[in-house]
Predict the structure.
Amino acid sequence: MVKDCRLSVRMIAEKTGLDKCAVPRILTDHLHMRKICAKLVPKNLSVELKANRLEICQDLQERLKIFWIK
């Protein structure tokens, strides 16, 4: 269990192997997150963004099901 869910950009970059410049861009532009009190939290999402996230999550869920069945 994770005791502290706050991660720095540096920590995320190290764990994922991504470039330190790419991590903030992914978090803000693609995941629509912003930094509040040293925590990355989702911004208020529009109905369109919520639907988009739901579609992406459902697609990933289906992919995982196929992956684990094999």
Summary: Residues 47-69 form the longest helix (23 residues). Helices lie at 9-16, 22-30, 47-69.
